[in-house]
Amino acid sequence: MTHVLLIRLAGPLQSWGLVSRFTRRDTHSRPTKSAVIGLCAAALGLDRAADLHAEDLPLAQLRFGVRADRPGVPVRDYHTVGAGRFPLRPRDIITDPRRAAAVSRSMEGQEGTAFGHHDLANWYGAPKKIAKDPVSGGLVSEQLVRDALITERWYLADAVFLAALEGEDPALLAKIGHALEHPQRLLWLGRKSCPPSGTLSCGVYEGTIEEVFSAKALLPAAAEEPRPWAWIQSSPDDAEAAPINDQPVTFEADERAHTLRWETRTRITIAETATGWDVLL
């Protein structure tokens, strides 16, 4: 017999990237399995290099599904990074002798100027492209001036999702649920600027994801949609299944990897006998 842990994912903003790059950070229309498993791993206090298929914590092997109780509205953020000028710090002139000479010349005749409030015209404040100085032998920046980079970042505003993790060990699911309400690390909805609101863990239930989704009413503040869409992990042999590249392999910083899994998109009919919620919004 299988059991299902339900997870409420709600907040002012969410962002579930699939193919994000530095200048363009996308968001999927719904939470990804990789992000939700990462959320659980962080709550459990696991290291990034932890084995996601470990016998005692086989997080990656759990079957995944998500129900869009309120899909949210896509929001585009116009964002700039870099450029500008910054006050010089003592370490700036220690690590780069060129700064010491430049600031010395620029401060001539400016008695009483506080060092921490002085900056250099056309001098980028953060070190980039560090290399060895041919004169002093010290490490200096090869890039002293940099134009601002314009990035495009996408979010989902006012979305409410019900995620599900299915497995045969209810004790494991209960452990994950407890960790989500007592996390050992900070949690966010896909991106660090998107903290979750209210209750995350909504209990462990007997059955499959499909059965539990039908047996639970829409979350409070959800859209008035009697048959919400859901995306549920399935077998690649299913004729209606589509591949998605969000099955986590490892979260290790230098070796993060994902692989394909398959899921089906379906409408969930909420049963007339569906039970409601007692959650903190």
Task: Give structural notes.
- By secondary structure, the chain is α+β, with helices and mostly antiparallel strands.
- The protein is 17% helix and 31% strand.
- It has five helices and eleven strands; from the N terminus they run ββαββααβββαβαβββ.
- It is elongated and about 80 Å long.
Proportion of residues in extended strands: 25-35%
Shape assignment: elongated
Main structural class: alpha+beta
In angstroms, what is the radius of gyration?
25 Å
H/E series, N to C?
EEHEEHHEEEHEHEEE
Largest sheet: 9 strands, mixed
Distance between the termini: 31 Å
Keywords for this entry:
281 residues, alpha+beta
Layout of strands and helices, then pairs:
Layout: E1 3-14, E2 24-25, H1 33-44, E3 63-70, E4 73-81, H2 90-95, H3 97-106, E5 130-132, E6 139-141, E7 149-167, H4 170-181, E8 201-206, H5 209-215, E9 229-234, E10 242-250, E11 257-267
Parallel strand pairs: 2-7
Antiparallel strand pairs: 1-7, 1-8, 3-7, 3-9, 4-7, 5-6, 9-11, 10-11
At a glance:
The protein is of the alpha+beta class and 281 residues long.
